[in-house]
TrEMBL record:
<dbReference type="InterPro" id="IPR017804">
    <property type="entry name" value="MeTrfase_EgtD-like"/>
</dbReference>
<feature type="domain" description="Histidine-specific methyltransferase SAM-dependent">
    <location>
        <begin position="23"/>
        <end position="324"/>
    </location>
</feature>
<dbReference type="InterPro" id="IPR035094">
    <property type="entry name" value="EgtD"/>
</dbReference>
<keyword id="KW-0808">Transferase</keyword>
<dbReference type="InterPro" id="IPR051128">
    <property type="entry name" value="EgtD_Methyltrsf_superfamily"/>
</dbReference>
<dbReference type="GO" id="GO:0052706">
    <property type="term" value="F:L-histidine N(alpha)-methyltransferase activity"/>
</dbReference>
<dbReference type="InterPro" id="IPR029063">
    <property type="entry name" value="SAM-dependent_MTases_sf"/>
</dbReference>
<keyword id="KW-0489">Methyltransferase</keyword>
<dbReference type="GO" id="GO:0032259">
    <property type="term" value="P:methylation"/>
</dbReference>
<dbReference type="InterPro" id="IPR019257">
    <property type="entry name" value="MeTrfase_dom"/>
</dbReference>
<protein>
    <submittedName>
        <fullName>L-histidine N(Alpha)-methyltransferase</fullName>
        <ecNumber>2.1.1.44</ecNumber>
    </submittedName>
</protein>
<dbReference type="Pfam" id="PF10017">
    <property type="entry name" value="Methyltransf_33"/>
</dbReference>
């Protein structure tokens, strides 16, 4: 019942396209410096993210979970039997709410979790097999892009791609457009996308959510440098950088940075890269966009996806949208 595919051992031509570390070189040699958020998620980063989801200030997970708990049955009714493909599945905790709803309907179900972090992907797939005795799990250790391009025919009546947790917010508008064209290429007409998005809200709530009092978000942010050290033989000293995050109201996005505490030079030997930092210079490690429900529905339509239903919480902090191709 369990298949685990490692798509991150690419073929030579895919390797060329993937250009390992090319994005790091590009990000660290431009002004202002940036790094792609996907480097947060080594095994330690994925564990830290799980801890973030439990923080009192980080309302996103709690709120989305409550929406799912209330409406999972409705979602399962609307799609019927289907293959659930989850992008960035992590611990699959929230997905269990959906799996329960489909199981209660007595429908055959296949779960295809996709994540770049092999450790958490494999351990959560094994736990699911124990808890759901009739579930098939076809896990893919992969980037979204590779996995979406290689989805095989479902053999079930339908497919639903789940992109929950507001990970969409971590994409720039250009990346968002590219992402949706990959989604609409992967889906057949009549198939579904379930999208979870964080909504715009007062600045103090957002600032607190990304500057928690326990320092877990700071550790998550700084861990990216340790990940780069290990992966590209680097010498970042994380005690020489600090976490800095704030809500940019004009852009409607959180901007998360690592700020150099002094002027310093670092090297990533595997990339043959030397980088100079001035004191106070920052690396933008993540944006987290906060959306408006109406604007998102209009945008989805321009991308070829029909919003069928929108669910939200009482405070309108988070939105869950079911769309159809
Ligand atoms: C994964 N993603 C939706 C999180 C977010 O809220 O943008 C990542 C995160 N960054 C800091 N805290 C959580």
């Amino acid at each position: 019942r369990l298949q685990i595919e490692h798509l991150l051992s690419p073929t030579p031509s895919e390797l060329n396209k993937l250009d390992p570390g090319g994005d790091v070189v590009q990000g660290l040699t431009q002004t202002p410096k940036t790094l792609p958020p996907r480097y947060f998620y080594d095994d330690k980063g994925s564990q830290l993210f799980e801890q973030i989801c439990e923080l009192p200030e980080y309302y996103l997970t709690r709120t989305e979970t409550a929406i799912l708990q209330q409406y999972a049955g409705e979602i399962a009714q609307m799609t019927g039997e289907c293959e659930l493909v989850e992008l960035g599945s992590g611990s699959s905790t929230k997905t269990r709410i959906l799996l329960n709803a489909y199981q209660d309907m007595g429908k055959k179900l296949r779960y295809v979790p996709i994540d770049v972090s092999a450790g958490i992907l494999e351990s959560s797939a094994r736990e699911l097999l124990v808890d759901y005795p009739s579930l098939q799990v076809h896990a893919k250790c992969s980037t979204y892009e590779l996995a979406l391009a290689r989805l095989s025919p479902t053999g079930l009546s339908s497919r639903m791609i789940c992109f929950i947790g507001s990970t969409l917010g971590n994409l720039t508008p250009e990346e968002c457009d590219r992402f949706f064209s990959q989604i609409t290429n992967a889906l057949q007409s009549g198939e579904y996308l379930l999208l979870g998005i964080d909504l715009a809200k007062p600045k103090h709530l957002l600032d607190a959510a990304y500057n928690d009092s326990c320092g877990v978000t700071a550790a998550f942010n700084l861990n990216m440098l340790e990940h780069l050290n290990r992966r590209f033989d680097g010498n970042f000293d994380i005690s020489e950088f600090e976490h800095w995050a704030f809500y940019n109201e004009t852009q409607q996005q959180i901007e998360m940075h690592l700020r150099s505490k002094r002027s310093q030079t670092i090297q990533l030997r595997a990339l043959d890269l030397t980088v100079e930092f001035s004191s106070g210079e920052t690396i933008l490690t993540e944006i987290s966009r906060k959306f408006d429900l109406k604007t998102m529905q209009q945008y989805l339509q321009t991308q070829g996806l029909k919003p069928l239903q929108v669910w939200t919480d009482k405070q309108q902090w988070f939105g869950l949208l079911l769309c159809q191709m």
